[in-house]
Amino acid sequence: MNFQQLKSIRETVRCGFNLTEVAAMLHTSQPGVSRQIRELEEELGVDIFVRSGKRLTGLTAPGAALLPIVDQLLLEAGNLKRAGKDFNSRMDGPLSIAATHSQARYALPHVVRDFREKFPQVTLHLHQGSPKQIAEMLLSGEADIGVATEALAHYPQLVTLPCYRWTHSIVVPPGHPLLEHREPVTLQQLAQYPLITYNQGFTGRSHIDDAFEREGLHPEIALTAMDADVIKTYVELGMGVGIVASIAVDPERDTQLRMLDARHLFEINLTRLAMRRGTWLRAYAYGFIETFVSTLTRDVVEAALAESFVAA
What are phi and psi of 25, to 5 degrees? Predict the structure, then answer.
C-alpha cells in the first residue's frame, strides 16, 4: 500500500470516476491510475469501485466504507509534513483561505495586509465560493481555513469558531420613496418594491427570507447575485431595492446610493471561521486566525480542536 494508490482512490471519487481527469490531476497516465487502483484492491481483497466494462461507475459497499479511512490517512500524511516543518521553526509555506465574496472583499483585505507584514514568507491562496463550496474545500484539503456565515456549523467534520456579528442594510438610489419615511422602514413597505439581494445560501440570505415569511409577505425578487458590488450596480440602475451586508456599503465610495439600517428587520448574522477536524495547522495559520479575530489566540483554537477531537 502506498500514498499514490490512496490518492488515486480519493481523486477518482472527486472527479466523478473519470480516470482521464484523475490522471491529469495526479500528473500521471490513465493506465497508471487504473493499475494503482487494481493493485490496492488486490492487496485489500475487495473491489472498491463498481465497473461497467472498463469504466468505473461508482463505489461498492466496501469502497464506501473504506473511503473515509483513505481520506483520514491522507489527512494525517499532510499533518506529518506540516508538523515537521513547524518543529523546524520554518515560517514559510502556503496557506489556503476559502471565503465568501463578501468576506474576501470587505472583511479580509486589512487582515491579509497585516498578516503579510508579519509573515512575508507565507504564500496566501484565496479561494471564493458559497458556504457549501467552502466546506467542501476544507473537507478535501484544498483549503486550510474557511470564513463564511451560513452552513459551516452544519458539518460535523468541521470545527467552527464565532468571529463577529453583522447586520444587513437597505440600499436605494437618491430620491427613492423609502427615504421619505421618518420612521424605520418596515417589511411591508420594503415588500412593495422589487428586491435585489444575495443568492440562496449566501451572506445571510436565509434570514432575509425567514423575516418575510414570518410576516406572510412574498416580495418580488428581481435579481440575485453572490457579489454585493453586483447588487449595488443594479440598484444604481433603478432595477430595485438592494439588501446587502452592512460591511459592503461605504458612503464615501457608494456616492450614487443611500443606505437605510435594516438591523431591526432581519436577524443578526454570525461570521464563522472553520477548520477540518483533526488537521494540523502551521504556526503561521494560527497567526492568520489571530490577526482576523484577536480573541482567537492559538491556545483558544487548539483547545477547540482538541475538544472536538475528543468528542469525535
Answer: -65, -40
